[in-house]
Specification:
Order of helices and strands: HHHEHEHHEEHEHHEHHHE
CATH class: Alpha Beta
Oligomer: single chain
Strand content: 15-25%
Number of domains: 1
Helix content: 40-55%
Bound molecules: S-adenosylmethionine
CATH topology: Rossmann fold
Strand order of the largest sheet: 3-2-1-4-5-7-6
Number of strands: 7
CATH superfamily: Vaccinia Virus protein VP39
Largest sheet: 7 strands, mixed
Shape: globular
Length: about 280
């Protein structure tokens, strides 16, 4: 039985209230912001693109044991098991509901993919694995929630074998807002999503933290222009807002719309960034 910290329990409650299987089935089974190209048709494709972009330098072989933290509804883990030759993959998340949904999905997939996968409820900042258990740790669109990023990076380093890879896609703070109203709005939005203040880092600070903790950083790349414009178009589309309203009510869908418009402005003002990182344990 996994006992979560107060912070993790609050995050799990947020995800269980806001993003349940209703949204996963009707909107996109990926719960990430997506990597949008000119020909990307929908959020599911953008979500899959982000997974593939994050994996580009992962060096996963048929001998690789992989850990996928913050796996959400599990589709990401299933995608990694399908598109790489990995030997095995463990998907972990703090949300019991998401782990149950992930397990229910396995029967839809071929047994050679499904049998490589195990889902477990667990926090990325308190990994219940022996030292040097994995060849690759993958974290997509979740590390900003962790209390803290540093604790997770230390845990990732501990469970990676020497030479193992850490692959991350994550939200960044490009710079602090100057405008007081913007500052207030960003702080409220962060509180609502239960994001620790210590995680307000820009690309350079993120890369420095990984280096200080003893990783060799091979890639630290901003992909914000492939993430935000496409994601905002999607969040403001009638299709997404109607699924949201059906799920959480008109009032909540309106708040979502106002938030998306504000975030779009914050992106345009240069406050937001999004990075892909590839780091290796020496
Ligand atoms: C934005 S969702 C992304 C889910 C998935 N990676 C995807 O892209 O579809 C963030 C996920 O991180 C999970 N999460 C947050 N804090 C966590 C922690 N400390 N350990 C493991 N998972 C966590 C949440 O429950 C949620 O499922």
């Amino acid at each position: 039985m996994t006992t979560l910290s107060e912070h993790d329990q609050q995050t799990a409650d947020f995800y269980e209230n806001e993003f349940d299987e209703h949204l996963a089935v009707k909107s996109s089974p990926f719960n990430n912001w997506g990597y949008w190209k000119t020909n990307t048709e929908d959020a599911a494709q953008a979500g899959r693109n982000l997974v593939l972009e994050t994996l580009k330098h992962a060096n996963i072989t048929s001998q690789s044991r992989v850990l996928n933290v913050g796996c959400g509804f599990g589709v990401e883990t299933i995608e990694i098991a399908s598109c790489t030759p990995c030997k095995s993959i463990v998907g972990i998340d703090i949300s019991q509901k998401q782990i149950e949904f992930a397990n229910s999905q396995l029967s839809h997939y071929k047994s050679d993919v499904a049998q490589k996968i195990v889902f477990q409820k667990m926090s990325a900042t308190d990994l219940q694995f022996e030292d040097e258990s994995f060849d690759c740790v993958i974290a997509i669109d979740c590390v900003i929630h962790f209390s803290t990023r540093e604790t997770f990076f230390k845990e990732a380093k501990r469970v990676l074998k020497p030479g193992g890879h850490l692959m991350v896609a994550d939200h960044l703070h490009a710079r602090q807002a100057e405008d007081e109203v913007d500052k207030l709005f960003l702080a409220r939005a962060a509180k609502m999503r239960n994001l620790p203040e210590e995680n307000n880092q820009n690309l350079e600070a993120y890369q420095n933290l990984l280096t200080q903790l003893g990783f060799q950083v091979h890639q630290a790349l901003s992909i914000k222009d492939h993430v935000f414009p496409g994601a905002f178009n999607y969040f403001l589309s009638p299709k997404y807002l109607s699924v949201y309203a059906e799920h959480l009510g008109e009032k909540r869908a309106n708040i979502e719309r106002v938030q998306a418009v504000s975030y779009q402005q914050f992106y345009e003002k240069g406050y937001l960034d999004y990075g892909i990182f590839s780091a290796q344990k020496p």
